[in-house]
Amino acid sequence: TGPHLWDEQLDLDMNRTLRAYDLVCNYAYDCPRGVRWSEEDIQLVKHTGAHLHDDVRVLKAWKRTVCELGDTDLDMMRKITQDVESVREQVKNAQRVIRETE
Q1: What is the pLDDT of residue 1?
Q2: What is the pTM for the complete model shown?
Q3: In terms of residue numbers, what domain contains 15?
């Protein structure tokens, strides 16, 4: 749990998108004869979500930081808000590309 820095829907979307992203990225290895995603589509998904895992880790680190230090630093809170919105956009883009290429 911890401080409320983003909505629950984003948490759900991040988790679902990371699982889907990993599924697509590993698809050629896990299903060598599969036809669900082409190699080009897999590369497009990889490119679209290239920073997603790292950026989600950053958000979770922000949550730990706010637990320890509180939310009194306005600049830090502004940066967290920017990071949340960036991840929200990355999640939407990754979901869209996965849907469109499937």
Answers
A1: 58
A2: 0.91
A3: 8-101
